[in-house]
Amino acid sequence: MRILHWILSKPAILVGGQAVIEGVMMRVPGAYATAVRDPQGEIKIDRHEFRSLGDRKPIWKKPVLRGVAALFESMKIGFGTLQWSADVALPEEEKGKEPGKLGNFLSILFAVVLALLLFMIGPMWITTWLLDIEKEALFFNLVSGAFRITFFILYLVIISLLKDVRRLFKYHGAEHRVVYNFESGQPINTATAQSFPTQHPRCGTSFLFVVLISAILIFAVIDTIVISLIGTITLGIRLLVHLPLIPLVMGLSYEVIKISARNGHRLLFRMLRAPGLWLQRITTKQPEDEMVEVAIAALKAAFGDRYEEMVGKKYTAEAIA
Predict the structure, then answer these.
(1) Does the predicted TM-score (pTM) go above 0.70?
(2) Residue 292: C-alpha distances to residues 173, 225, 279 (Å)
(3) Fewer CB within 10 A of the end CB, N or C, for the chain?
């Protein structure tokens, strides 16, 4: 009970962000800011006021729907900040080689198609091809889910070998350490931030792992319903049913993450978070001091005039960082 009282006694605030090219984006209530170090070593800032969809339309604050809204907003902000970071971080001689709007659209489309092939179509096709278990809803989804998780881990390991991605993962570690530093109430500086872990329980990597686990259970239930209604199920039917339900899976996973954030002191939820934290050993690396400086600059810029008022307190949070 003392632990629960300690957690509930801290004010709640949601501060999170993402790594970008040579920088960090930090998002706080009402705004987000991106800090990027340019080729000359200077830190450039791009700040935007932001009012979430849930604040504008209350229906998007409802359970599950708020997860869908948060995902959409995170993707929209994420793509924009990545593009801006590339514009700032690339040397002048390389900027002319950047793809135009059509090139960016095709890159995003390729990434979406690749993700669907690797993490949806591929695992289900392999399970259908290897095993005659199409009508066994739970067993089928357990096997295809195992393939999906394996592909996800292998994908992270492979891209982590790339030099540019490893540097991005260092900035990811810097973002987490500065968020930890802020939530701790301790003075925010490079030395203090570097004392915190690079793994954070509200990371998007942890969220994606929860999505993979949730998909197994949700799709098993959906397949059971489909089989009971039409008497059979095939790979084509599964794809037609599963793909439109991806937002539902993510919305439900968001709720799981919120519950885990509130109950992180309980054994069950610590076990649920453990695989995501383990995966962050791949997606976060030890940041250099200069990277932490950039993350701190992003946090300060995001809060703007409220920065001094907000720091120096211990915080908790109820959603994804």
Answers:
(1) yes
(2) 9, 50, 21
(3) N
